[in-house]
Amino acid sequence: MSFLNFIKNNFDRVLAVDSEFCYADHTKTIQSRVVCFVYQDVFNPKDVFKYWTADKRFNDPPFDFRKCLLIPFNAVAEGHSWLHLLQGMPNNIWDTYVENARLYKTFRSGKGALDLLTTAQHYGITEVMTKEHKTEMRNMIINNDTYDDEQREQILDYCLDDVELTRKVFIEQVLDIEKKNNLKTEEDYKTEISQIMFRGASQLHVAKIEKAGIDVNYPRVRDFRNYWDKVELQTIQELDKKINVHDEDGTERYEKFVELVKRNKLFGKWERTFKTNKLRTDKKYLDKIIKKFPELLDFQIFKQIKQLKAYTKLSVFNPCADGKLRCSWNMFGTETGRCTPSTNANIFGGAKWQRCLIKPGFGYVMFYLDYEQQELAIQGYLSGDKKLIEAYKSGDGYLQSAKWLSLVPDYATKDSHPDEREIVKVLFLAQGYGAGPGYVAGQIKCSLLYAKHLLRMFKKLYSTYNDWISKVLRKVAITNKITTNLGWQRYSNGTFKINKEGQLKSIRNTLLNFPAQGNGSDILRQAIIKLHEAGFVINAPVHDAVLISIPIGNEDKEVKIAQRIMEESAEFVIGNKIRVGIEKVDPHFKVKEKHKETFNLIFKKIDEFKYLAQSRQQPGSQS
Question: pTM for the whole thing?
Answer without folding.
Answer: 0.89
